[in-house]
Amino acid sequence: MTVVEIVGKRNRGRSLIGDKRQARSKVTNGSALLPGVDGRSTWVRRCRDVIALHLSDMGGESNTSAAERSLIRRIAVLTTELEMLEQRFAAVGMATAIDLDLYVRGAGHLRRLLESIGLQRRQKDVTPSLSEYLKMKATDIEAAE
Question: Domain total for the chain?
Answer without folding.
Answer: 1
